[in-house]
Structure formats: C-alpha cells, structure tokens
Amino acid sequence: MKNMEKYKMGEKVLMKGNEALAEGAVRAGCRFFAGYPITPQNEIPEYLSWRIFEVGGTFIQSESEIAAINMIFGVAACGVRGMTSSSGCGISLKQEGISYIASAELPFFYANIIRGGPGLGNIAPAQSDYFQATRGGGHGDYRVIVLAPNSVTEMGNFPKLAYDLADKYRNPCMVLADGLLGQMMEPMEFNFDWVDPDKLPPKDYIVTGCKGRPRRIINTLHMIPSILEKHNWHLYEKYQRIEENEVRFEGCNLEDAEIVIVAYGTSARISTEAVIKGRKKGIKVGLFRPITLWPFPKKAINELADRVKKLLVVEMNMGQMVEDVEIAVSGKSAIHFLGRPGGSLPTGDEVLDKVEEILSKPASPERERGK
User: Fold this and answer.
1) CB atoms within 10 A of CB 222
2) With bands split at pLDDT 50, 70 and 90, how would you rate the model's confidence at 77?
3) Could you give the 3-state DSSP secondary structure of residue 127?
4) Which DSSP category does 340 fall into?
5) Which pLDDT score, from 0 to 100, does residue 366 have?
6) pTM above 0.70, yes or no
C-alpha cells in the first residue's frame, strides 16, 4: 500500500474539519466508503474518493443513501472497517439500515455533519439532529454510541475511537458534528499511530466463507416473540455496559462555579468564550461539555447539581439536549436554556448576557426557554 502514512502522529497540520475526519478514518483502518453527496459534508466523500485508493481501499458513490447504508451492512458483515457519512435528511434515509446493523451487532462508523432543519432546511450549521442521534434514530429498541467533537483535532481523532468502540461492543458508533466544524480550518494533529486493518483482532462472527468451519449466520429477523425478546434483553444488557464504561465529558472552571453552562460541539466552543469573558468580569461561571452524547454523562451532571444550583444549556436548536440535562438533574437545580435554531449561531456575548441575566434572579426549578 503506497502513501500509507501521510501525516505523522503529533505533526501539526492545517486541515478542514471534514477532511480531518476523512483522513482520520483512513488512518484508523477504514478501507471502504459508500455515500451520497449532501452539503455540508461533501468534503468527506470528495477527500475519500482519491485518498482511500492510496491505501488499497474502495470508494463508491452510491445511487442513494439507502444503497450506501446497505453496502456498509455488507462490508461490516465481512469484517471490513467501513464508513458512510451524510447530513440530516440523508442520515434519516439510512436509519432503517442502521437499525438492521445494530440488531445484527455489527460494528461500523458513520458521521452526521448537521445542517439546518427540519425538511431540506438549509446548509448552515445546526445541532437539530440530537434526538435523531441519541435515541437510535430508526425503528426498534436500539442505541448507537455518539461522539461529539468540538475541534478539527477531535474531528480527526474521533474516527479511531469510534471504530474501537464499535468493535469492542459490536455496535454502530457515530460522530455528530455540524457544518461549522466540518467547514472550518485550524491546526490539528493526530494522536494515534496508523492502524493496519490486517492486524486487527480476528472477529469470530463475520461471514467470509465457511469451508473448514461451521457456518455463521447474520440475521435481524426473529419471528418468534420469545426469541426476539431474549435478543432485545441481550442488547439492553450491552447498552448498560456501555453506559457504565464509556461516558466521556470535560469540565472547565467547575470548582467554584455559581452557574455552569452545559454545551457540546460548536456551542461549547462559543460558550468557552463566555466563560473566559465572564471570569474576567469576576463572574463564577463554568462549562460542562458532554463528549459522549450517548451514553450521556447523567451521573456527572447529577453530582454537579448537588452544589451548582443554576445551569444554562446552550444549543443550536429549539431545545433537545436540555431534556437529558433535566433528567440528569432530577430537580436539584434550576435549568435555563438558550437556543438558536435554523442554522443561526449564538455568540459568546449573547451567552454571557444570558448568564448575567440568570444570576440577577433568584434560583427557580422552572426551565426557561431562550428566544
């Protein structure tokens, strides 16, 4: 395979977020991509349309999103690290196949670079697909692991984490980003060595021909209710293990905070500016950033609410993650919300103004909707 190691680990490179994610996937062992164009994620398939051939892989621009996800089903069943990507409505079309793959317990990685919605919406950055991502997205009782980057460096490094988690739990794993993270450029570096897919641990469930061994069957159809119920309990127990072991988050200035902003992805970047400016003004404001949106860091937020009685959830939607924060807090703290839907971005000053407004009022358990 020629041109395998394009960038050395730790080397600073100026890259666009979508291209970093695509290069990170190749670096992590992706050898098959199938997808269909949609803005603002088009740089991912464009980059892979030439890059994946340099490492001996296969690129297919499929005739539809539905075709793409079923191709991924096939390569996952054969043990290949495959990938697809899309945005909003394209991910919606893939949901039936994702449900099949989750039921079949096959690992794969995919990315949603969110655009404004609902419907065709626009091509501006948004966080309106949070429900779609964290509730499975399709039919049936299933979950996918959801990673939310907030930088180009994380866009490049999360594919390796996604593939590893997918293999560990035999489950789909996705990166949920937005059009701003996909299009922006900044210095980034890869924090992992190149993965040789031929040297990954063997998988004893894949279908690659059964000469000399018992046949294997990958199936999602369980017509007998008792058998399907047993399968669902098996999946549920796996999801419980994921929730116990794979929660990821980070905090900033939480030790003495009187109010904490809860935000992920681009909203967390914007909120960081509010924290810096607020601290300069003597305001004790902190930031809690979920990195795994599922499993959601419920326990950590619940413990935070024991000592911080005012939380501000900032999202680029009408209020989705705020519901998970409410569940986690269990009434211990007042929860406020600032949302900008339809591809509009909040500013750091806007977030800080909301913080100051909240601090000027007595604590209340009622949730406030932003305008």
Assistant:
1) 14
2) very high
3) coil
4) -
5) 58
6) yes
- Look at residues 70, 73, 20, 28 and name the one whose alpha carbon lies nearest to residue 47: 20
Instruction: Please state the domain extents for the chain.
Output: 13-199, 251-359
- Is 333 within 8 Å of 310 (Cβ atoms)? yes
Q: Are 367 and 337 in contact (CB under 8 A)?
A: yes
Q: Which helix (H) or strand (E) holds 159?
A: helix 152-169
Cα–chain-centroid distance for residue 125?
15
pLDDT at 4 over 80: no
**What integer is the mean pLDDT of 216-229?**
95
SS3 227: helix
The type of residue at 78 is C
Does residue 108 contact residue 83 with C-beta atoms inside 8 Å? yes
Q: Which of the four CATH numbers 2.60.120.260, 3.40.50.920, 3.50.50.60, 3.10.100.10 does domain 251-359 have?
A: 3.40.50.920
Beta-carbon count within 10 A of 303 CB: 13
- From first CA to last CA, the distance across the chain in angstroms is 54
Top-level class of domain 13-199: alpha beta
Q: How confident is the model at residue 298 (pLDDT cuts 50, 70, 90)?
A: very high
Beta strands at 249-252 and 285-290: parallel, antiparallel or unpaired: antiparallel
* Displacement of CA 33 from its chain's centroid (Å): 18
- Token representation of residue 371: 């305008």
89 is written with which tokens? 């409505």
360: left (phi over 0), alpha (psi -120 to 50) or beta: alpha
